[in-house]
């Protein structure tokens, strides 16, 4: 009898503690919820504005559109100076992502598998480029690409963005590659695979998620950057973000269209996040969590 | 990991080297060129030695911008890091809530930086913005266009809005890597909530937290687009950070010499910080 009593109390004590922890946890959802509300409010306000007419935006203050209109979106989808901005952005972002990941793959393999002359210095030098302020490079870039006659082309922006995206891709891929055991390489070589065949057939599928994450981050940083993209383009390759600044500064502010354009720039990001949601943190930690 | 020594690996690095050299080394040399020369228009340049460096280092404008940058970085770190930890600790660990939290929280990170500026510009305006209207209704005299203090508040809240998620995501990744056994052991010992945080969660987050702090420090030190769109560096010069000042000098006034000298000083500071970052990180890697 006494023995059962003992076990009873022994099991009850942690149970109480667990329940107390549970009570604390019951209100835990409040913190992230409040934070998400704080994140969503300004975005909601932009979306709200994008469905209003200019008179309504400037005239009456309302928390939701009183007479919802799609006029602002219609303006963007019918005016080439607006929608070409999206096309330009997407072209150079995709070009940049492809270039960055392609050149970063072999380099990351070299860093993760071998030691060679100056490897540590080179790795550090790459990192410094990720940390370099774009403001420092804006003017020299303009002159460099003018000299090559590349101003206002998509490739100019794509190559310029490699400045910070290639180092990032190398770092992320190196992190993922170091997680693949070396025995796999050795076995493949014994089986008579040549390096390129091994790399494409065996190694790349193994680090597929790493490649995805690296591509996502290249996409992201190229997509959000404006200073360099704006400096290197005038009309033909002008990114959507720059089109927006022009509208703000020059013509009598068309708030509705501006808001609609802003909402449309959020959508591609929201789409790609969904695919990499479980790897985002690892990417931000440069592949080192 | 024991890596074999193989200098042929250089061939694999060559494409990256060529590309980054083209993107970084050549422009950097142009900057160095300008920083030691003077021009009177045309294409004539004269050797100016260290004149521009002396001018920049003794100018109040540069040190004021630098000071503002440091204060800004200090404030946002003091807000974003504790807030990020708090949110990460309270995030759900399993179920559908995880995906929802991750996606919604990552959203601000993927908005083009000038759109972030536009969002807050609109949000804070006293005539059409929700925030401006709300503070006005509460009787607070808030106007970021005229008042330097309000401009600072706006820029800081905007940065917190934009980047706290980065800290959250990193801390969360550190937290989920803690095995359940640790918590069970703590429970048996009757450890308090604080003890669990202090002796289990914080040490496990140390590594990612270092990355978060250094990334946030460096990115806030280079901040340009968002405050430029919202305040344009004003009112007056109250939100003119180093980058904004640099672009004003280089592209606005076309003072290439001083702008180049300033770029180099700026770049050297960043280089120093990157070195600290790199040393700390590789030390962690070595410990592991």
UniProtKB/TrEMBL annotation, chain B:
Its main location: membrane. GO terms for biological process: transmembrane transport. Keywords: Membrane, Transmembrane, Transmembrane helix, Transport. It is found in: Cell membrane. Belongs to the binding-protein-dependent transport system permease family. Pfam families: BPD_transp_1. It comes from the Bacteria. One of its GO terms (cellular component) is plasma membrane. This is ABC transporter permease subunit. Gene3D superfamilies: MetI-like (1.10.3720.10). Residues 66-277 form the ABC transmembrane type-1 domain. The chain crosses the membrane at residues 70-89, 96-115, 160-183, 208-225, 264-284. It is a multi-pass membrane protein. PROSITE patterns: ABC_TM1. InterPro entries: MetI-like, MetI-like_sf, Sugar_ABC_transporter.
